[in-house]
Amino acid sequence: MVEAYITIQTGAGTTRDVVEQVRTLDSVRRASIVAGEFDIVAEVEAESERELLTLITEEIQDIEGVGRTSTCIVLG
After folding, report:
1. Beta strands 66-73 and 28-33: pairing type?
2. What's the sign of the alpha-carbon dihedral 7, 70, 18, 30?
3. Is domain 2-73 given the CATH code 3.30.70.920 in the classification?
4. Phi, psi (degrees; rounded to nearest 5) at 12
5. Less Cβ crowding at N or C end of the chain, within 10 Å?
6. 51: nearest Cα among 33, 36, 71, 37
7. pTM, two decimal places
8. Are 66 and 38 within 8 A, CB to CB?
9. Locate the Transcription regulator AsnC/Lrp ligand binding domain: which residues (predicted)?
10. CA gap 13, 67 in Å, rounded
C-alpha cells in the first residue's frame, strides 16, 4: 500500500469545484482547501506506485481547473 499527500494548484475561481471532484475519486481519503502556495491537499492511498501515478496523471490532472500538482509519498 502506498500513502501520499498530493498538493494541487487550481485556476482562479475553480478551487471549490476541483476539491469536490477530487473527493469523489476512490483512492482519495480526504481532500481539503488550504491557504498557501497550493489550494488543495489530498490524502490518498493506492495499491502500488503505478496506481498512484495513474491517479495523479489520469484522474487528478485531468480535472478541469487543476494546474500544477506535487506529490509527497509517506515513508513511515
Report:
1. unpaired
2. negative
3. yes
4. -55, 130
5. C
6. 71
7. 0.95
8. no
9. 7-75
10. 12
